[in-house]
Recover the amino acids of this structure.
């Protein structure tokens, strides 16, 4: 069951990361830093880590809801 919880937490992090990507597209470019491949890579890495931290523990509840729904299926197979 621990592996299931980790999997659902990682799924939630991926979902949150996709949400961050969609939100970034709405922000106009410009500002203090030039757009480059390195700044894009940094933003992607930062967003993924922020998504993982957001999904940690109970997170937004998506991963926990999936876990609660799926753990019954695993327990019934044992």
């Amino acid at each position: 069951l621990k592996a299931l919880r980790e999997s659902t937490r990682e799924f939630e992090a991926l979902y949150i990361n996709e949400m961050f990507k969609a939100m970034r597209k709405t922000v106009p470019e410009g500002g203090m830093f030039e757009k480059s491949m390195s700044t894009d890579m940094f933003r992607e890495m930062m967003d993924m880590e922020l998504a993982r931290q957001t999904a940690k523990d109970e997170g937004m509840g998506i991963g926990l809801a999936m876990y609660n729904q799926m753990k019954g299926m695993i327990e019934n197979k044992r």
Notes: The chain is about 75% helix and 0% strand. The mean pLDDT is 91. The radius of gyration is 16 Å. Residues 19 and 51 are 9 Å apart (CA to CA).
